[in-house]
Write a structure and sequence with these properties.
2OGFeDO JBP1/TET oxygenase domain-containing protein, alpha+beta, 192 residues, 3-stranded antiparallel sheet
Amino acid sequence: HRRGPYATVAGGWSYGGGQPEPMNLVEKTVKAQRTLRKLLDNQAVRDIAGFGNSCLKTYAPDLYVYYETTQAKIAAQFPKLKPVFTNSVFAGVTFNLGPRTVTFGHRDHHNLPFGWCCVTALGDFDHEQGGHLVLWDLKLVIQTPAGASYLIPSAILKHSNVDIGKQETRMSITQYSAGGLFRWVACGMRSQ
């Protein structure tokens, strides 16, 4: 895929790319569906999602309310849609499974342009030697140890991460909301 040579699974809500209305993301293979279900059922993963939610609420409270009200309006219109996490206002999640999640420089252009995504780094790697977050537009390289979470406006900032050692592992959990969901609500609960 365009972000790098590693496995991913994704879940949650999305809208765009030809979908007639907001819908649940569906993994294509049974193995990916099982992997996603195991991850979503894991208490540690749910705790990480809740922490990311709390970070957004703390550092961008107005944006948090916008995510929260948008999600509530879509849930009211489409009651069959289930939130990916009950403790998070982010509509989607992607699990970057690695074992060597090293991303190419990219922007997540389908996300809300002024929105933030929450990334949590996981694995067994020397964060002083590799795995750093690179924010190309800001000319910043930031150490991100395993267990660290950060919020970035991923649709507008080009970002990637530095390679890790050959025997090391790095994975990540990324929570986000597709920009199309916000457009759906802004257009009166319909497409443009």
